[in-house]
Each structure stands twice: as structure tokens, then as C-alpha cells.
Amino acid sequence: METATLIIVLVIVLALFFDFTNGFHDTANAMATPIATGALKPKTAVLLAAVLNLVGAFLSTEVAKTISGGMIREDEISATVFPAIIFAGLIGAITWNMLTWLLGLPSSSSHALFGGLIGATLVGVGFMAIDFSVVMSKVILPALIAPLTAGIIAFTVTKLAYAITRRYDSKADGRSGFRFGQIFTSSLVALAHGTNDAQKTMGVITLALITVGWQSPEQADPQTWVIFACAITIALGTYMGGWRIIRTLGKGLTEVKPAQGFAAESSTAATILASSALGFALSTTQVASGSVIGSGLGRRGSQVRWRTAGRIMIGWILTLPAAGGVGALAALIVVWLGFWGIVIDTVLAVVIVLALFLRSRRDQVTAANAMSEVAESGRAVKVKRNPPPTRRQRAIAREEARRAAAEKSAVKRAEKAAKAAERTPPAPENGGER
What we know:
Distance between the termini: 141 Å
Helix content: over 70%
Oligomer: single chain
Structural class: mainly alpha
Strand content: under 5%
Low-confidence stretches: 372-383
Mean pLDDT: 77
Radius of gyration: 30 Å
Largest sheet: 2 strands, antiparallel
Number of helices: 14
Strand order of the largest sheet: 1-2
């Protein structure tokens, strides 16, 4: 019993640490664009995101139920084995999160968690322990549909935003008022992130408690202390900023206009909130990226770099198997060595996390220098410096040309009339008598 208790404690600690990494890994999804456009100062943005992530964590538990009572068939797994499997899966998720954070890559924390758990379960138990219908319907399909949906919404909203504000076409940045709207929309994204991503850690902890009999399997809702612990942890992680990821997304988005940022954030928030209500555990990173590409397509003069977008998608595809591979390896050590495998996994996890953290100190990224470089994922949308004129601009130009031509013609006629008057001799006085 003491061993089981120790494993559960380790699972809870690892789950909360994953929650922490999730917070600073995904801050950029909500706040990179408003920071880049100047709508919010960097530290103000991450503080606002942290508070709203905290609030959002209390608004929904549907995603937590998907993990704690759907994806993995815990009733078919021995209570003496499953906590160690969850432990191994968390190691896979944390390792991938830390590695991608070091590289500044906005990968999916959600898929890292799912991949780690699935990989560890497959090695530790077998295929029968995974409900692949739930994985397909609430993980894989949302991963394919949500970015596309968000992109279509962002495209539509961007078109509407520019159509409504056509009077500003002739001004360099006449739509800067959208920066104020970005404060609201980015806040909504942060709130939506709390309703989706914080729930995943709650689901993992609840799953572990159910497995060892500390919570009834008929009650899939997270306990109150679990909700508070996960909400506070993800808020703290968000406040840390994740400046490497913000640098990747934010610097690459500096050419995106405020109207585009407003549209992208609106579609991201709408997609995440709808998915949270339905219990879909989607990736906020994928949704945010799809929204940015959609907003780029919606603005005249923007050019989507599909080659780079394809590389981003390849990164999304690799997240599940990569985290799953690490989780499977950690589970294999546990299967071979039992309790000592747990000890070895713990030591290896601590060493890997510390090594990645110490490596990050060599080129530290903070709020002061987060916008110093452009990374790959930020180049998905390129805005031309001299975009072609809009329909309204062409109409204005034609009208001005017509007026200029009319004025020029009138001036020429006046000049001809004046010259003709000079050549005509004046009429003699007194009827021409001499």
C-alpha cells in the first residue's frame, strides 16, 4: 500500500508539473499577437492570461471527463499496474513539452499528453486498454477539423472586418482601433484555454485516483481540490510567460495587422469554447495556427507560405508518436524492473528536465528580448509591404484620374481661347471711319 501511495503521489506531482509546462507552453496562443501589435505590454499580457486561465479552469469539466472516463478503459487494467502506466505517460508528455519549449516550437501540449498516455498504455497493458473510438472521435478528428474550422471563421471575419472599414483603405494603419478589440479577444482565448487545457491534467489525476479506488468510477468529475490545484498550477505556468514560444509566434506575426489579429483570436476563442462544451480535447496551438493562416488568406495582399505551413503540420503529426515513444520507453522500464523502474524513470525525468532547463540558460529569453528573432512557425503568413489596391482604392483612383483629366482639359480649352483672343485684332472705333 505504501508503494501504491508513493506512485500516486508521484503521478500527481508529475501531472501538476505537466500542467505548469502546459501553461507557459501555450501562453503564446493567446498573447503573442496582441504583444506583437502593441495592444498589450508583454508582462501585462501574461498576467492577464494567467488570471483568465485560472478562471477558465473552473468553468467546465467536460474535457476532464473525456480523459478520466473515456479514452482509456481503466476498468480493464489492474490497479497495481495502471498508476505506473500513467506515470510513464506523463514522462513522455513532459519530455516533449520541455524539448519543444527549448527549441521555441509551438507544438501541442494536448497531443503530447495523449501520445504519452497511449504509448505507455500500449506497452504496459496492450491494445485492449485503449478505446480507439473515443481517441478517434474526441482527439484525432478534432485535431483535423478544428484548425480548418478556425481558419474558415478567421477568413470570414477578416473579410468582414476589412469590408466594414473600407473608408480606412487609403490610410497606412487606419484600423489600429482593432488593437483595443484584441485585448478582449485575446482575453477570451486565454479564458477558453483554461476551459480546455487545464481540464486535461484534472482528468489525468482523476483517472489515477479512480484506478486505485480513491474515487468512485461512477463519479468522473474531478474533486474540488484537484480543480483548484490544476487551475492554480496552469495559471502560474502561464504567468512565467513561455517567452521562447511567444518569440516564435509573436515576432513572426509583427506584420499581421490588428484587424487580422482580432479575427484570428475571435475564431480561436469560439472554436475552443465550443469544443470544451462538447468535451473535445483539442489542441489550442493547432487552432491558433489555423486561425492565423485563415486571417492571412482573408486579407488582400497577404500571401500564405504553404511550404512552411506544411512543416508546421508535420510537427503536429510528430507530437503524438514522439511523446508516445518516450512514454512507451518509460513504461517498458517499469514493466521490466517494477518499483525500481519507477525510481529509474523518476531520476531520468529529473535529469532530462534539469538538462533542458540548464541548456536554455545559455540563450535566455525574457520579456525584454522575446521579439528579437523570427522563427519558423511565425512565417506561415507573409504580408507584402506594397499590397495591390483594393476595389475601393481602384475606384477612388479612377475618380481622381477622371477629375484630373477634366481639369486638364478645361485648362487647355481656356488657354486656346486666350490665344485665339490675342490673335483677333480689335474692332475699329466709330464704325470703322477714319
